[in-house]
Amino acid sequence: MPGIEGFTGYGGLAPHSGSIAQILDLQGVIAPHDGKAYRESLLYGISGGAVFAYFYFAYENQDPQVNLLTRNTFGEYGWDSMCERLGISRDVIKSTSPEKAEAKLIELLEEGRAPAVWADVFTLGYEYSDLGEDMWAMQPVVVGEYPDPGSADGGEVLFADRSQAVHRCRAEIFQEARGRIQKDRYQMITLEAPDPGRLPEAVRAGIQDAVLLFFEKPPKGSGNNFGYKALTRLSADVASIKGKSAWDKLMPDPRMRLAGRMSALNYGHYFWKDGSADADRGLFADFLDQAAVILENDGIRSVAGQYRNIAAKWQSLAELWLPRELPLCADAADSIDGRHRSFRESGAGAVTELAAFDTRRRRALERAASGELNLERLKDSAAAISALLLEIRDGEADALRELETLAC
Q1: Rounded to whole angstroms, how far apart are CA atoms 52 and 279?
Q2: Which of 341, 50, 357 is nearest to 211 (CA)?
Q3: Is the predicted pLDDT of residue 141 greater than 90, yes or no?
Q4: Distance (Å, whole) CA 353 – CA 307
Q5: Contact in structure between 394 and 313 (CB atoms under 8 Å)
Q6: Burial class of 388 by CB neighbour count within 10 A (0 to 12, 13 to 18, 19+)
Q7: Torsion of the alpha carbons at 127, 330, 226 and 209, rounded to the nearest 10
Q8: 385 within 8 A of 321, measured Cβ to Cβ
């Protein structure tokens, strides 16, 4: 069976930076500043680092969604920036034939290479969506083992995607996931080693992205959805009862409000993240510690310390979205945290537990609709959330201004 010896799950935080980090590690690539493997925190910082964006979605016949983004989503979620800035050569391999795509994947594994393979995580069976069977998300996963062609039972594919455990999937399902969407159909990418001489400028470019996305208009979309303006707007929306974007108007009934708060907690503090609930700010602090070495500037360490203080504020914010003194909110929070923890520890091997947490989350919304949630009891937490968001905004603004002076 073609595969990579000693292949494990990478336990990464996001599929794009995590997959690059694992592939470079499997190929024995060492970062020049510390003699260790390229860490995901370094790649995260190079891709744009600590970002904030705020979007509200309300689809017909669906619960509303508050989507809080904490990393750069431009350029394939930073994949392009990471590779271009580090001088990583990429071989993009596509095919219109599933048979040829499968044969090429096996060939790469026989050569001892672990490629990033784009596959739909909903078809793979460990992601959920309330938007129905049409929901999809093509993301890079790292394949470490593939069954021999013509296996009597089809065999299993071993691959890594964010979990500490290796995922296992029937080969025919994996092929179906690879072919789900035309744009990325049967796409896989192999990576060469970075150019170590480009690391300092890559770090500076990532820091500059973080600064620009906080203070300036983004490459696409409205500036009101990003950075300083977005935190200001969210602070007002959460606690306001007037204005077209006030949550009292957007989500006037208990089920809608609970759905909005649950999605804010999930996307802002758990989705594609570790278990700290700190909105990737601790990860950015780790990047800045490395940046201080790479750029030979100890002053950057003080900004890393500022971001660790900001990370603690984000953790406090996570607790406010669903106040634990309200039993329904506590149960909703536990369903989100439990699912995230089970996936990170066991991956696709926890599908039964993941489905149970999904059911628990949906039941919380039904309980809110049946009258178990009194919106008046959320007012104190709304005021606290609003105030804390402004503290976070001002703290990040001060830290980024200092960082720009030091590094750019």
Answers
A1: 9
A2: 50
A3: yes
A4: 34
A5: no
A6: middle
A7: -70
A8: yes
What pLDDT sits at residue 106?
Answer: 94
Q: Kindly report, residue by residue over 42-93, the tens digit of the pLDDT.
A: 999 999 999 999 999 998 889 999 999 999 999 999 999 999 999 999 999 9
Find the helix or strand (DSSP H, E) in which 142 lies.
strand 138-145
- Would the pLDDT of 330 be above 80? yes
Across 238-271, b (16+ Cβ under 10 Å) vs e yields bbeeeeeebbbebbeebbbbbbbbbbbbbbbbbb
Alpha-carbon torsion, ordered 18, 19, 20, 26, to 10 deg: 110
- CA Rg value for the chain: 22
Q: How far does Cα 237 stand from its chain's mean position? A: 24
What is the phi-psi region of residue 248: left when phi exceeds 0, alpha when psi lies from -120 to 50, beta otherwise?
alpha
**Are the C-beta atoms of 232 and 390 separated by less than 8 Å?**
yes
How many CB atoms within 10 Å of residue 61? 6
Grouping H, G, I as helix, E, B as strand and the rest as coil, residue 156 is strand
Which range among 128-142, 189-203, 248-262 shows the weakest confidence by mean pLDDT? Answer: 128-142
* φ/ψ of residue 141, rounded to 5: -120, 155
Tokens 């108007």 sit on residue = 249
| pTM greater than 0.85 (yes/no) | yes
User: Using CA atoms, how far apart are residues 360 and 332, in angstroms rounded to an integer?
Assistant: 8
